[in-house]
Amino acid sequence: MNWSDLQVLLTFQREGTLQKAATQLDLDISTVSRRIRMLEKDLGSKVVENVSGRLVLTSYGEQVVEAAEAMEVESDALQRGAKGKESVLSGVLRVALLDMFVLFHADLLNSFTVQYPQITLELVSGTTRFHSLTRREADVAIRVSTQPDENLVGMRALHTEYAVYAHVAIAEGQWSAIANQPSTPWDVLPWIGWDPAVNARMIDAWMERHVPIEQVRFRVDSPAALFMMAEAGGGACILPVIYADLSDNLVRLSDVLKGFGTDVWLLTHRDLKRNGRVQAFLNHCYQGLEPLRRRSLVSESVISAKIHP
């Protein structure tokens, strides 16, 4: 039996309707209904019933709520006691993130452990699979997404658009002779693409339309590898504007690509949102990303600022 499902039932009992419970829990009504059905399945008996068009607790449901309230009181007491004793945050915090974030924000991650020296950060990166917060494969995720899962909570830390970039040597070589042609001849440039195992459908589709396969010199399976190969002159590629515009070695060759914009989220599971280590880490990262957040607004409004020539 899941304690969070019991909390959903408690909220329903206190609010009186599924809709009010959903609003209080910041969930949609179908999720609240599903969680109650899951609780009934675990308990093997109905806890709510429809009476004259209104959903109410069954007699067994009232017993469950009474027991859950007692559990809640005990849990709150334990949490208050733990909070009083743990004035210094400590322990392990497992963070799932892209290696691109480490490449650009290692100092931000390091400053967190300086501020909280008794917390150990376990950094797990991956591009071909997500580390699931629901299955507790990580406590926190720094994730690129347009719409996070409904069971996760957090904050939108950054927004970025995407554009085509290449090393300055490529821009001043092959590109400078052809950049002003009526149609952009992307097929004359060397390119860096994504490994097929990576979910990069929009970029793959764009490259299929514009880049002959024989022009792809490298394929990579991580954002950091893509960025570093571009900086080394390995070829043109599509990169996030907020990071690529920081490089002195890269030149933007296009306007931002329509429909590619996405967000960087700082996320955790709902059950962990009040955890002290989690709260401290999310707040630290959000505040530390403020300069880049302000800069991204400029990058998005001046979309052609670095286009070469």
Features of the shown structure:
single chain, 309 residues, alpha/beta, Arc Repressor Mutant, subunit A, D-Maltodextrin-Binding Protein, domain 2, five-stranded mixed sheet, elongated, disordered C terminus
Summarize the structure.
By secondary structure, this protein is an alpha/beta fold.
Helix-strand layout with pairing:
Elements: H1 3-15, H2 18-25, H3 29-43, E1 48-51, E2 54-57, H4 59-85, E3 91-97, H5 99-115, E4 119-125, E5 140-145, E6 152-160, E7 162-167, H6 168-175, E8 191-194, H7 201-210, E9 216-220, H8 223-231, E10 237-240, H9 241-244, E11 250-252, E12 262-269, H10 276-288, H11 290-301
Parallel strand pairs: 3-4, 3-5, 8-9
Antiparallel strand pairs: 1-2, 5-12, 6-12, 7-10, 7-11
Count of runs of 4 or more consecutive helical residues: 11
Assign an overall shape: elongated
Mean pLDDT: 84
Terminal Cα span: 63 Å
Number of strands: 12
CATH fold title of the largest domain? D-Maltodextrin-Binding Protein, domain 2
Q: Based on helices, strands and strand pairing, what is the structural class? A: alpha/beta
Low-confidence stretches: 298-309
Give the radius of gyration: 25 Å
Protein name: HTH-type transcriptional regulator GltR
Family: Belongs to the LysR transcriptional regulatory family.
InterPro entries: LTTR (IPR050176), LysR_HTH_N (IPR000847), LysR_subst-bd (IPR005119), WH-like_DNA-bd_sf (IPR036388), WH_DNA-bd_sf (IPR036390)
Keywords: DNA-binding, Transcription, Transcription regulation
